[in-house]
Amino acid sequence: MSRKILLLLAAVLLLVPPEGASASWATRFIVYYDNVYTITDESVPADRLGMKLGKVTTFAETEGADYKGNFSNALPKGTAFKGILGIDVQDAIAVDAGGGDYVKAVYTGTYADSKLSGVREAMARLDWLWSLLIAAAAIAAAAIWRRKSKRSGGQRRA
User: Are the C-beta atoms of residues 52 and 79 closer than 8 Å to each other?
Assistant: First the structure.
C-alpha cells in the first residue's frame, strides 16, 4: 500500500513545473532603482534626451532569480539609459538601442511588487503541495491503523 502512495506522490510531483527556467519573460524590461520599465519600440529624439541616469549592471538570464541593481532581460551589461526631457523619470526613461539611437521604456511598477507576485505564486504552489502531502499522510495513517486493528482483532487492550 505504501509503495502505491509513494508512486502516486512521485507522479504528481513530476507534473509540477520547475521554477527558475531560462529567461522567457513576456516583455523586455529594465529595472532602475527597483522600478520596472517595459522597453518599447518608440524612438526618443536626440534633442529630448536628458542626463545619464545609469547603465545596466547585470543581464538577467533567469526568470525568478533575485537580481540587484540596474538589470535587464533584454539589454547587455553596460547599456546606458537617460532621462527624457519633459517626462518624469517615474513615467519613462530612454534606453540606448545602439548606434546613438534611444527608445522609450515605460514605467510599469516596482520590482518589489513583481518579486512578491512570484512569491505569492510559489506559496500557492506550496499550499497545494502541502495539502497533497497531508492527504497522503492521512491515507498512510489510516492504512497503518487499519492494519493494526486487523492484527489485534479489533479488540482494545485495557
Answer: no
